[in-house]
Design brief:
about 290 residues, alpha/beta, eight-stranded parallel beta sheet, 10 helices, 10 strands, about 20% strand, globular, SFP_aldolase_YihT, EC 4.1.2.57, Sulfofructosephosphate aldolase
Length: about 290
């Protein structure tokens, strides 16, 4: 059986310039915050995601979609450009304690063989990391996920995201990101998607040091995500992370969040989001050329 590799989701330069539109309830909240009529209907999210795929995928090396709102529609409408790979989120979000994603399990509704038939090249798994939860359970989940990917010839992408411990008030996000990398950075996945240290704030040297520390603990290629980062700081964050050893980004909010809730979505995606994504792709290529 053919086995996809990281080359199938990179730019010709070897760097990753990947777009995420797999946000679920978080995206609904963004529409609500932007003044969309309440409650925000599923169709609003689906339409936005499909439009984003059609308009932005020509400028991305891969696009990450979710089964809940857009995978079927994206496939049926041929929304992903030929030069862009499709990644499908294989994580099931379980709400609780007043937040949309309190825990995560592998979504067994995602059929890896069907994803491959539909042209998908990779699956992605969100892993919530809390210092007071059992590391063994996380490692077993990642191992099972990697096995699903690899036995079906798909690339395995894990996304460890740190959360405060359930039973303690103290939380050092920066240390948690490092601890998660120590635990999961050698877990057999193909690609590690990580939160940018310090939310991309601080001096270049401070960020570089933090990113280099991260790089020491991740034994696979890694990319940064943009959640929590001011979109104006994201291009600099990509540059600094890549100086430290990252190979690009897999991000959504830094590209399209500013157009959520605006009229003429398609035009706004073209005029505002396309140039952002193009610029980020250029940074990735430029940083890869220095290696």
């Amino acid at each position: 059986m053919s086995q996809y590799t990281l080359k199938d989701i990179t730019r010709p330069s070897g760097g990753f310039s990947m777009l995420a539109v797999d946000q679920r309830e978080a995206m609904r909240l963004m529409f609500a915050a932007a003044g969309a009529p309440q409650p925000v209907a599923d169709q609003v999210l689906t339409d936005f995601k499909v439009n984003a795929a059609k308009i932005l995928s020509p400028y991305a090396s891969a696009i990450l979609v979710d089964q809940q709102f857009c995978y079927r529609q994206v496939v049926e409408q041929n929304a992903v450009a030929q030069n862009c790979a499709m990644i499908v989120a294989a994580d099931k979000f379980i709400p609780g304690n007043g937040i949309p994603v309190d825990s995560v399990i592998i979504d067994k509704q995602v059929d890896a063989q069907a994803v491959k038939r539909d042209g998908g090249k990779a699956l992605k798994l969100l892993v919530l990391w809390r210092s007071d939860e059992d590391p063994q359970q996380r490692l077993e989940m990642v191992k099972e996920f990697n096995q699903i990917c690899h036995t079906n010839g798909l690339v395995s992408i894990i996304e460890p995201v740190v959360r405060p411990p359930r039973r303690s008030a103290s939380f050092d996000r920066e240390q948690a990101i490092i601890d998660a990398a120590k635990e999961l950075g050698d877990s057999g996945a193909d690609l590690y998607k990580v939160e940018m240290p310090l939310f991309g704030k601080g001096s270049q040297q401070t960020l570089l040091n933090a990113s280099q520390r991260l790089n020491e603990h991740i034994s696979m290629p890694w990319v940064i995500l943009s959640s929590g980062i001011d979109e104006k700081l994201f291009p600099r964050a990509v540059r600094i992370a890549m100086t430290a050893g990252a190979s690009g980004f897999l991000a959504g909010r830094a590209v399209w969040s500013s157009v959520i809730g605006l009229p003429d979505t398609e035009m706004m995606l073209r005029d505002i989001s396309v140039p952002k994504l193009q610029r980020l792709g250029e940074i990735v290529d430029e940083m890869m050329a220095r290696r």
